[in-house]
Amino acid sequence: MAQVTADERSVLEEPAPPATAPPQKVSGRSWPRTVLLAIGALLFLFPFYYMLMASLQLKPDTSVRGAFPTSGFTLDNYRSINGRVNLVQSLVNSGIFTGAVILCTVVLGLLAGYALARLHFRGRGTLFAAMLLVQVIPFQLLMIPLYVMIVRSYGLADSYLGMIAPFAINATAVFIFRQFFMQLPDDLFSAARIDGAGELRILWSIALPLVRPAVLTAVLLTFIGPWNEFLWPFLITKDADLQPLAVSLANYISSVAGRAANPYGAILAGACVLAAPAVALFVVFQKHFTASDIGSGVKG
Amino acid sequence: MLTTVLGRQPLGLAFAAPYAVFLVLIFAYPVGLAVWISFHDYFFTAPGVAVDRPFVGLDNYTAVLGDPEVHKAFLNVAVFLVINVPLTVVLSLVLATALNGAVRGRIFFRVCYFVPYISASVAVVAVWLFLFSNGGFVNQLLGPLAPDPSWLINKGLAMPLIALFVTWKQLGFFILLYLAALQNVGKELYESAAMDGAGKLGSFMNITVPGVRPATTLVVILSIITGANLFTEPYLLTNGGGPNGASASPVLLMYQRGIEQGNPDTAAAIGVLLMIAFLIIAFVNKRFLERD
């Protein structure tokens, strides 16, 4: 597997000249490429545009012209979804779930990533192999045994702890940290050790400040996991006061799906509230979602 | 002495220990438990209640393998993969190549392509439900060409639509993977190909496609993982795998059998079979794509 290093990250950020044609041909040949990219962008963005527009119309018009409303904007749908599911409580639950998962992932991931990258200890190879193996086991396949353990054996149904536990570790975050720690020069660590610094001290005061971008990337990548997660919190929370927004919105969708007049306006207003934080974070921090960071996560 | 037993920096053990403990508790033990449950007559009890759960050998597996609904669910995943995997590979490679050469608007397009990937499935399922509903925007756009019955309640179209949805949602991630892989394809290869008079299509087929083959292996495996995991889409988009099981997935069946109907033993057997099927496909795919 080809390795992508941090150096190549900068390559991705810079506007690279086309590799296939000499410069004088660029202007003549670049328009099909731009058209292709623009059609792609339209297909990717249109559902989001439509979601927002329909959520702002009291009675969304499904006709083709209705996709481009010029008047009748209202926030009624947001009030209506707030009456059906407790938006504030759901958002708080999503926040607690997501925040705790990020905290566990970053703390456990930093320690494990540092150990795997910089320390020689017995079982390091085994641990790394186990992490690679875990990545190919789809989480959903563990649904039944985890449900049995957490809900039936430990009685953690309808609790934040039960919701958080299966997500507390994340191989992607460990891979990102390991990758970044490995890129730091060896001299830095031997110098600190000669000066008598303990490993915890080295990690905290020397290595951590240098891998701050990796921490940000790991936080951003981890955020979208629990914030968007549906299956697991859906399985273990029956109490509406504990459900994250993804679950309460899904329950609302499936409870009204059978009815003739679907209140799509309210559903789409809820969808906008659910999608907005992740999209906003991504747009603001988009340059931290680079291919090499994600690549190092999935490739090891 | 201690160094030879624990390694040069035994503190590493302490650093890695919390992670390793979670790995055992959340992955290793549940995998074992799933296999154990699938060989026993298992049912739910309240916490702390000890009951007899007799060993039943392969009974759960014979029940599952003889169940037409299970056959259908696995067949549905096959349909999903046949549509999703080629579409994902071709579209993400083509768009990544276009993006790689683009001079202007790279960041804008990157953001556009990535937005579906980072959005919650539940939120984007909601808008697809609306777009593809009976009198929805897509049918209005198609006019007389609109399928009857409509997309989500049409036996032949429900699963392909789910495959399309997942392709759309995941594509941004795969475009980024290919974008990284493209940086490793030597520019001089393209230059010499252009010198030899190769066209754009020619150099794409003869240089780009073989050049990113390792990434393709990864894209295919990750797509298959997505297919094996399918739950939210059939649960919400087609209202529980409808119409009449035409879009049910194995994970949806595991949920319905195991948790709704209280038969964790047969659900665990479905899970183990799915895991075996997935490992075989991943292995064959690795062999097939990595041979030279």
Automatic annotation (TrEMBL), chain A:
Residues 1-12 have a biased composition (Basic and acidic residues). Its main location: membrane. It is a multi-pass membrane protein. One of its GO terms (cellular component) is plasma membrane. Residues 91-285 form the ABC transmembrane type-1 domain. InterPro entries: MetI-like (IPR000515), MetI-like_sf (IPR035906). GO terms for biological process: transmembrane transport. It is found in: Cell membrane. It comes from the Bacteria. Keywords: Cell membrane, Membrane, Transmembrane, Transmembrane helix, Transport. The keyword Cell membrane applies. The keyword Nuclease does not apply. Residues 1-28 are annotated as: Disordered. The chain crosses the membrane at residues 34-52, 96-116, 128-148, 160-181, 202-224, 264-285. PANTHER family: ABC TRANSPORTER PERMEASE PROTEIN MG189-RELATED (PTHR43744:SF12), ABC TRANSPORTER PERMEASE PROTEIN MG189-RELATED-RELATED (PTHR43744). Belongs to the binding-protein-dependent transport system permease family. This is Carbohydrate ABC transporter permease. It comes from Nocardioides islandensis.
